[in-house]
């Protein structure tokens, strides 16, 4: 039986349990299709997954998660990048999901790296 077909019908507690198990390393991510879960999680659950990624306790690709994260989570990802964690975040993957103000901030930060200092 494919668990992914059940996801739309799970209650919040069941989804919370799955997210906790994923973060705690109790789920075989090679066989469990994590991306199929994302559309059915709320902002807080997605935020927990992003936190685990940023803390280094969960090794996943953020790209499939990006269309589903909220504004606050996206802002945290950008701030994480701006704090010098470029290795953790491929900033160009966030571009389609950020607002104009965030894009300008990233541009100014990146452009400053090319300016000569006196």
Structural notes for this entry:
By secondary structure, the chain is mainly alpha-helical. The chain has one domain. 42% of the residues lie in helices and 0% in strands. The protein has four helices and no strands. Helix 1 (12-23) packs parallel to helix 2. The protein is elongated and about 65 Å long.
Count of DSSP-assigned helices = 4
State the helical fraction. 40-55%
In percent terms, what proportion of residues is strand? under 5%
**How many strands in all?**
0
* Alpha carbon gap, first and last residue: 65 Å
- The SSE string, one letter per element, is HHHH
The poorly predicted ranges are none
The chain-level structural class is: mainly alpha
Total individual domains: 1
Mean model confidence by pLDDT:
90
Our Rg estimate from Cα atoms comes to 17 Å
Largest sheet: none
Which shape, going by the Cα principal axes?
A: elongated
């Amino acid at each position: 039986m494919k668990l992914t077909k059940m996801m739309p019908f799970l209650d919040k507690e069941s989804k919370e349990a799955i997210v906790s198990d994923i973060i705690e390393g109790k789920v075989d991510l090679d066989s469990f299709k994590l991306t199929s879960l994302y559309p059915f999680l709320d902002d807080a659950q997605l935020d927990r997954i992003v936190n685990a990624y940023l803390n280094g306790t969960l090794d996943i690709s953020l790209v499939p998660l990006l269309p589903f994260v909220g504004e606050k989570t996206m802002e945290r990802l950008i701030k994480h990048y701006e704090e010098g964690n470029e290795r953790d975040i491929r900033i160009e993957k966030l571009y389609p999901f950020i607002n104009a103000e965030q894009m300008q901030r990233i541009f100014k930060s990146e452009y400053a790296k090319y300016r000569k200092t006196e």
